[in-house]
Amino acid sequence: MDYYLSQLINGICQGSIYALMAIGYSVVVGVVGLVTFTHGEVIMLGAFASYFAFQIFGNNLFLGIVASFAASAFIGIFVYKVCYERFFDAPRHISLICTIGVSMLLKNLTQIFIGANNFPLLEIIPNRFFGWGTVGVTLVQIIVIVTVVSLSLLLFLFFNKTRWGVMLRAVSQDKKAAALMGINVKLTTLAGNCIGCGLGGIAGMLLAIYYQTLIATMGGSAGMKAFSASVLGGLTDVPSAALGGLCLGVIENLGITVSSASFRDIFAFIFLLLVLLFKPEGFARKKGVRP
Amino acid sequence: MSYADLILRKTPAWLKFALLGGLFLFLLAFPRIYPKSYAMGVMCRILMYTILAGSLNVINGYSGQFNIGHAGFYCVGAYCEAILATRFGITFWIALPLSGIAAACVGLLVSLPTLRLKGIYLAIVTLGSSEIIRLLFLNGNDFTGGPIGIKNIPSPYIGSFKISKSVHFYYIFLFLAAIFFFLTYRIIKSRVGRAWVSIREDELAAKSLGVETSRYKASNFMYGAFWAGIAGAAFAPYFKFISSDMFTLDEGFNILSMVIIGGQGTLIGPIVGSIIVNFLTEFLRPISQYRLVVYALLIIVMMWIRPQGLVGASNSILASGRIRFRGRKKSAGETK
Amino acid sequence: MKSVLLEARDICQYFGGLKAVEKVNMQIRVGDIFGVIGPNGAGKTTFFNICSGIFKPTSGEIFFRGESINGFAPEKIARLGMARTFQNIQLFKFMTVLENVKIGFHIRTKTGMLSAILRDRQYREDERFANEKGIEVLERVGLMSFKDTLASNLPYGIQRKVEIARALALDPKILLLDEPVAGMNPIETKALSDFIIDLNKSGYTIAVIEHDMKFVMNTCNRILVLNFGQKICEGTPETVRNDKGVNEAYFGKGIIAGGNS
Known about the structure:
The structure holds 3 protein chains of 3 kinds.
Chain A: H1 2-32, H2 39-57, H3 61-84, H4 92-113, E1 119-120, E2 129-132, E3 135-138, H5 139-161, H6 163-173, H7 175-180, H8 185-211, E4 213-214, H9 218-231, H10 238-258, H11 264-278
Antiparallel strand pairs in A: 1-4, 2-3
Helix pairs in contact in A: 1-5, 1-8, 1-9, 1-10, 2-3, 2-4, 2-8, 2-9, 3-4, 3-8, 5-6, 5-8, 6-8, 9-10, 9-11, 10-11
Chain B: H1 2-10, H2 13-33, H3 37-62, H4 70-88, H5 92-111, H6 119-138, H7 141-144, E1 157-158, E2 161-162, H8 166-188, H9 191-201, H10 203-208, H11 213-239, H12 249-262, H13 268-283, H14 291-305
Antiparallel strand pairs in B: 1-2
Helix pairs in contact in B: 2-8, 3-8, 3-11, 3-12, 3-13, 4-5, 4-6, 4-11, 5-11, 8-11, 9-11, 12-13, 12-14
Chain C: E1 4-15, E2 18-29, E3 33-37, H1 44-51, E4 59-64, E5 67-68, H2 74-80, E6 82-84, H3 97-103, H4 113-118, H5 121-141, H6 156-168, E7 174-178, H7 186-201, E8 205-209, H8 213-219, E9 222-227, E10 230-235, H9 237-242, H10 244-251
Helix pairs in contact in C: 3-6
């Protein structure tokens, strides 16, 4: 019983990281209106940015967040220019294949110029454990959950209470109408893309801190999980994406109790398949993105 | 580039056949002309990838389904042959078609839940399936060799003649590729091929005209998977060793890049793609870690300037929706 | 009285809270040219989509040739003999006119993968059939000069005709046309009206959605009027012209319409 309980806690913690990845993904897809394969690599680059921040400035969590957000947002500009800017009116598969190319590019460039091996990231957050016997939470888990919840709140306030947030929501619903209202659609789309990427970057940092390691190939599995979780919200609805992330984390961790740890990624896939089979459009409040 | 389309369109069929026949004869004689075994190795790779890229093109280019997990079917074919040969002693000539059929069945399994999915949803499911297939073989312990893979895959025999050298396999791959293109050509130029293209161009219109889109999408997937399996099954005794890390997603992207760069929706596209990408592999050997970077850049450039690929179908939704013949739209039938 | 070909009983289509179609009854008989009219947003295209199987009705039943076709897939309904065209022209843009029409013969041919590979008699017969009948259809519709033109290069009015030709390739029992004269000038409209009457004389039952009142009044022998998803009238052009509900729907109840409010 204890084992299941601690796996549940692991699930909630990892689930919150997945939720953040999925939130970032749905913001990008929602605002830009095009589906992407690059989010995994954006997450990975954010992780590396935080790694270097920790190397240079010590275990300063706040700086890590800033570094990962900034790096991923910056990469977002590159992705936008290459994959989205000229393909808004083209058939969907063209920008999609372009993002596959960019994701290959980013992954391999990282392997060449930073390294293809595992980079250890030990004890950024001190190893403290709060609990009874074998069941409890670690300080890392608490901080991860707190970070994700705070960011979600900030995002909520941003989207609903600020002018920029309203502009982003307008652009995500109808670009032409937004343009008619005087909104600079290009700039807003770029901003939305970068914010979503930045959030992915922070998620990458959290992944690195939680697993205490990072590697250039982590993007593939991360991107897949971000996607699987966002499908619950039709790829564009942020709260459903967050919920999807949490569910995914819990299902994954409870799932490996009955099979083996090497099947972890298979659960993300099964989750995805089940959602696609039973509710392909997700629970989006606005109509989901055209695939 | 548009001149290429004009040339392709205006060449009469008999000339195309003559050229192809000539090419085939040349390829038959090639090992006599240039007998270096290094060249044989490269040619084997090119021919095998022609089948892999060609079968992926049948799925992506002709029926418009977005499959990026082709490595999975390749994996099934290779492992099937290896297991049948090493664990059950079955001869290559029987294991080959059996592996193809196995891959086709897996193709059906992957296709069924995706029949109503489109675009990225379908793509992600194929991606996930490819990985799961690979993981299943990786974790199959002794039966599939586990992480070590399967070694000492026996060479095929014709009577008492052992097929072990590159030049022997060159002919096997050449004949498999020729059969593949012949069969595929016949299917494409028939009601079946037209149904596939109609699904690619406008699935709703196709349905409203009575095309049973689900059945055709599934059969298309199975056909593509079958040939990927055949390629894998021929690869296993050629390389004599297989393991699951030869069939990762990177390999899937490798095959995909051949289709994207060479061209989708035409029969020559994957041939050109295989030649280009495999030649690049050889040229880039000194800087081999940049190989995938180069492919990635080529994919991006291709999407920017010619989405249908170098010799892909310009008359299709695969191109960016615009056909430009020397700056103004021109129909196929206009003579002025 | 001729037999009923297509019948809708109490068809409702709700999209969440939106009542797109509300309890619509309709009977199309063999040999009719049946018009479906109504203001924009009245639910006409949604109704056609239900008939041709693209939507499954929330409630109610559809009968085609006496058989219930509720929930049938569009391809199955096409096989039973219903062909349609679309409001925004869904031609295969990158195929020629003849290639477009040849897809229409899919149901009437049988070649499968094996026949294709062997090029056996089935294959040869089917190819000959598709080519010959394709030319026949194009001649009938008067599109032979455009046979090898890419569909997207054609003028709008010709594209609409190609779509109709393609639908005719199915040799359908009923032809559903969604706004066939949209965007046409009066001369083209008259030409298409004559064409449809001509088709009808050769034995095709036709249902048309249209906005152009003159076209509908001149072409159709029975009309269904929809407004806000509901049926407000069904009958001959005379009946519809004089119906109070129809006049209100189009002209309102104000002074201009001749009312008293």
